[in-house]
Amino acid sequence: MFTSKFLTRVATLMTVLMLTLGSVQPVYAAPPLNDNFADAESITLLPLNATVDITEATTESNEPQACWFMDRTVWYSFIPTQNMAVHANTLGSAINANVNIYRSTGSGINNLDFMGCAYFSNSPSFFFEAGQTYYLQAGPTFGETGNIQVNLEQFTPAPPEGGFYFYPSEPSAFDTVQFCDNSYDPAGFGFQSFTWGFGDGTTSTDNCASHSYGLDGDYTVQHTATTLDGRTASSSQLVQVRTHDIAINKLVVPQTARVNQTKAINVDIKNKRYSENVQVNLYKGLPGGGEQLIGTLTIYVPARATRPTTFKFSYTYTAADASVGKVTFRAEANIIDGRDALPSDNQAIATTLVTK
Q1: What confidence tens digit (pLDDT) does each residue in 274-286 have?
Q2: What are the residue boundaries of the structural domains of the chain, listed by start?
Q3: What is the rounded distance in angstroms from the CA atom of residue 50 to the CA atom of residue 148?
Q4: CA distances from 181 to 199, 223, 236 (A)
């Protein structure tokens, strides 16, 4: 049995313990200091390699959600003193994390221009301009809690690779040639300016430039593209301007013919510029539409200022022709292995009246 003295001592101790416990206030964990946009931690020097416990972080009602929905976020701000290339990532995080990059376009959280995001093992590149304010918004991707790592590091991007294309690829003096940049920037920043030297003393600063050459010749085109951060890439190509142009000078058919008569049909080809291999196709029109191929000739046509080259065909007129009363012939000329600069004069039509 307990004595009354012992019981009194126990009661006294319990009273003291209860009084002591009643005076202790509960301790709650606080969110990170940079939990809200207005309290973004200012970065003064790179690299940034910040480890932060996201467990008690929160989100604001008007907070942007760009790549992933994040139910807890922290904020960082950075104003570079010079143009720079940076990598952003969350490598080293204990949980799955994401960081969004924004460019400030004004005051407050509602004036942010989203630039891109880095999640899991991604480490994208960004171009930061001197004096511009940038914000990093970091948090978990799947509602997890724990430590995340926020990294922002400057790097030196690889040089860009210059290049361009032009069309048509075999231009003539009659063509307007389209030159377009297709340079490549491995950093992904893109290009801000372009220069062209067309090899004939003329220039342009357009991304895609139009140019016409008045004379045939070989022209070395020089092109330079400059990235947003000032790196340059140059390239050049030889553009050979050759104006290939033949024309049907005359399609000579008999004015009249009778059934079973075979008569000559001549196609005169005019060629003043370059000697060419030329193919001429001769067709006759069919009742109701369509054509029938009468013959094909391929002849080497020298470049001559005055005298044409004659392609000689023959045709035997039929009873079917006589029933129609005429035959309409069409000649079509094409340069073999070349592009005619003015193909509109490569056709001619003539008609023979046919009787029985």
Answers
A1: 999 999 999 999 9
A2: 37-155, 164-241, 246-355
A3: 8
A4: 17, 8, 11
